[in-house]
Specification:
alpha+beta, Beta-lactamase, six-stranded antiparallel β-sheet, 8 strands
């Protein structure tokens, strides 16, 4: 259920901690250690598929990939769409398929959805420079960076060159000030390619609060969670490490704040419902809905799993099938939600990596999503 103390965050509670996600669409950093594998494994439930729906998923391959091993010590998977209902959990993860977890950078999809809703309401446009909405936030000598460039990771923002002192609890404004420190590199012009950067979505969180006069957490609840009945989905308060049970992993290892770029809590059923609603047009007007699948020119030539649409959706081709979604990591878990274009098939997964090799893990996740969709 929704954490009551987080259902309405006052905009004045501004102290926040940020996990600075610098680059890498799927996994920025992985924990090599595994949680104790003491929990009994649950056998995946039988799959049911509509007789005239999409081809049934390869559940035998899914079960093989979910078995604890050298790549992942435990995995939770939920499939849905077009008559398919299938869940399974293995290894040290909670055996409750509705367990709560920090969704990491999947948060960015909620942020871009809010931004597109505000565009549809005429608050600003996709081409509005962020400097017009947040005057004084970026250095005056920088060229304009548009809302669309932030969503699509084509802003040219570079990675920070200085780190926060341990124990710092910066506000969003301080995070951006850190990213724009004069000692660090300014955006390079012209921007030649997409570069995944959490700073883009911190700025978008600030845009949401400026345009609405409400906190980011409040807008998530008012515009997405409550209308869709997402009772386990919310943006925690600053410094809140707690998770309402049941939980997927030890919350003590969670970074206390990542806000509009990676800080939200949800669970597999809620993420499935959100993704289905988003792709089927329940949350956006038609003009903004098209941005979900519009690929910026700068995405050409980018690796398959590092390409993002104008709305920040990952575009991923598996065996000739195009799927859309987002990955995220927080604590010891790495998670993702993917779907075919109209939500005909969805998959939500969360796993505990047992390897520190990001390429190996990405390959494993690709096989997992391919077997599911």
């Amino acid at each position: 259920m929704t954490n009551p103390k987080n259902a309405a965050n006052p905009a004045t509670r501004r102290t926040r901690w940020i996990t600075l996600v610098a680059a890498g669409a799927a996994v920025a950093s992985l924990a090599a250690g595994a949680l104790p594998a003491s929990a009994a494994e649950r056998a995946p439930a039988p799959v049911t598929a509509a007789p005239h729906g999409p081809q049934a998923p390869d559940t035998a391959e899914l079960a093989r990939l979910m078995a604890p091993g050298d790549t992942a010590s435990g995995t939770l998977v939920r499939l849905g769409g077009s008559g398919v209902r299938w869940t399974g959990a293995t290894g040290p993860l909670s055996q409750d398929p509705a367990a709560n977890f920090r969704i990491g950078s999947i948060t960015k999809l909620f942020t871009s959805t809010l931004v597109l809703q505000l565009i549809g309401e005429g608050r600003f446009t996709i081409d509005t420079p962020v400097q017009e909405i947040l005057p004084g936030t970026l250095p005056a000598h920088w060229k304009p960076i548009t809302v669309g460039q932030l969503m699509s990771h084509t802003s040219g923002l570079e990675l920070p060159c200085v780190g926060f002192v341990k124990g710092d609890a910066p506000t969003p404004e301080q995070v951006i000030s850190h990213w724009t420190d004069p000692k660090c590199a300014a955006p390079r012009y012209p921007v030649l390619t997409q570069q995944y950067n959490g700073a883009n979505y911190f700025l978008l969180g600030m845009v949401i609060e400026k345009a609405t006069g409400h906190s980011y957490a409040d807008e998530v609840q008012r515009r997405i969670a409550r209308p869709l009945g997402l009772r386990h989905t919310y943006s925690p308060e600053a410094g809140d490490r707690s998770l309402p049970g049941p939980v997927l992993a030890d919350p003590s290892e969670i970074d206390p704040w990542a806000w509009s770029e990676g800080g939200m809590v949800s669970n597999a059923p809620d993420l499935e419902r959100f993704m289905t609603a988003l792709l089927r047009g329940r949350l956006l007007r038609p003009a903004e809905q098209r941005q979900l699948f519009t690929m910026p020119a700068l995405s050409e030539g980018v690796k398959n799993r590092d390409r993002f649409s104008m709305a920040g959706l990952m575009r991923y081709e598996i065996g000739g099938t195009v799927v859309w979604g987002k990955t995220g990591s927080m604590g010891r878990t790495t998670s993702g939600v993917f779907a075919t274009e109209h939500g005909a098939r969805t998959v939500v997964y969360s796993l505990v990596p047992a390897t520190g090799n990001p390429d190996l893990l990405r390959e494993h996740i690709g096989k997992l999503v391919g077997a599911a969709l």
